[in-house]
Amino acid sequence: MTDPIRRLPPNESAVAAPGVLPGARPTTLSDEVVLADAAALELTWADKPGLWGWLTAVDHKTIAKRYIFTAFLMFIAGGIEAALMRMQLSRPENTLIGPDRYNQLFTVHGTTMMFLFAVPIMTAMGLYFVPLMVGARSIAFPRLNAFGYYTYLMGVLFMYVSLFINMGPDAGWTSYPPLSGPQFSPGHRIDVWAQVVTFTEIAALAAAVNIIVTTFKMRAPGMSLNRIPLFVWAQVTVAFMIIFAMPAVATASTLQLASDRAVGTHWFNPSEGGDALLWQHIFWFFGHPEVYIIFLPALGFITSIVETFSRRRVFGYTAIVLANITTGFFAFGLWVHHMFATPIPELGQSLFTAASMVIAVPTGVQIFCWLVTMFSGRPRLTTAMLFILGFFFTFVNGGLTGVMLASVAFDKQVHDTFFVVAHFHYVLLGGGVMPLFAAFYFWFPKVTGRMLSETLGRWHAWLFIVGINVAFFPMHFLGLNGMPRRVYTYLAETGWGPLNELATIGAVIAVLGVAVFIVNAAISWRGGLFAGANPWDSYGLEWATPSPAPSYNFVNTPVVLGRHPLWDTGSPLPVVTGLRTDRREVLVTTTFDAQPDSRHKHPTGSIWPLVLALVMAELWIGSIFTPWAVLGGLGLTLLGMLGWGLQSVREQDVERVDTGAEIVEAA
Questions:
Q1: Residue 431, SS3?
Q2: Residue 575: beta bridge partners?
């Protein structure tokens, strides 16, 4: 139930710095009061102990850590698959891996990296840090957040169990018809791919809704729209992109591709009036925005890191916000550049060429803003900053080849060659993974309370940056020399052997870099130096909490007086009091100016998100093998939703009783 702020009892009045809230007055909370409130809040907000508590946990930090850990395991799995493919291609006419297993490997590798690693880990960083950065005690819908993770986990398990029983998808991560249709792909391999996509898109949509509502309705008082951290702006932009992009591929994979295969519809069967190109349009309407769904959160990481280690407020705040939003809009207007080799009208090709080149402009604006910030400050060359410098070098190279591929004439020459593979990995590894590693080094102290080793971090950075460039730069020349992608072997007479061997050496170097990071993280998690609340002397609200952050995030909701709270105000921050400590209460604020509006009792832990994810898994996975699973799964899903709803209703009834007693007592 939501209580208006005006109904707070007199001894729980809103308190803040002068001039921030109407009628506010300055206050100083004694250490004894803060410690007592913190102890009470820990009892109220902490997850229950034991296995039951683990299964029913809804704390956004707990769920986000599970997302990050699972997604990083997928990064390792995808890397192993890539290493096996590199070993196969390291010399001509190699027999290490046969063609069928190779087809499964490159399909599962691409699906893993795009659907099971990149998007989940980027949104998980938002699920962890957005509530902290906006000064909220929790995320907007904690049970929905837990449901999203369990749904994602179902997709992960289904994909890799299928691969291990030789039922892994084998038509590429884009699954183009007619290759993925029933005529050319009998069995259930493509059905696995279609349902894994469904699981991951549901999870992404749940995360997107949470990030949007948390940002616009749970910000700390004083955090108006022009004071929202740039990290949060990037996450909000991506959340809106997910809402518009993900339903397209989920609908196409589940209701169209799966129905073509299972019940004989003909969405993509030209002989029956369907259109194979329809799949490409629908897929890439999602697929190209997905690149920016991965990329934009990375830009948010970079801004926070560059500001902190340059010791200067970022140059061009408004320009960066507009660049994020512009990129989000433009990302939906250039999907056809993946289809220049198809019979698209020339006028359409020209328009999509222009859009594909223009989208580089807002990214360039952000890069120049960071460079100005660095040159006007005094940068510290930490491991995180090394990865940012590696991002500049690698991503700009990938962006330049992207502009080249926007040209129809050039694209047709290198379409489906290793030139495209090189471009793709330069953009995703340089533009996504390098900033992600920088973010790990930057926020690891906040998540664990420990510092990562800077010595091992520098080894990691140099090995990874050098390895990635050695691995993928030669592929540009392989593509220009005619080597097609998705081939499991080649003849010695082609002359592709030496460059493939060099690319394999680069991959080994990059793998060594990731291994150093894993060792560093494992050692530091338990034995690293204690970090303290703010080891980097950074500016965001996430650094105003202890490290690691407690289950309730903030004892009292902070009040924001500028874009850089800890630099603008110092510590201790002015706060708003009045939220109860004996129940999970959060402050709801107005959308634009973040003025206190009401207080809301948040839900406690629940087993129903896990139950609903399990019964939906039965529905989607069972439908591959028998249509009866659809009927049974729908019934179980409705029961799961009913149980979830009944628990919420019971909590609301209890809340009405509690609130009535409180009003009588206050009166």
A1: helix
A2: 558
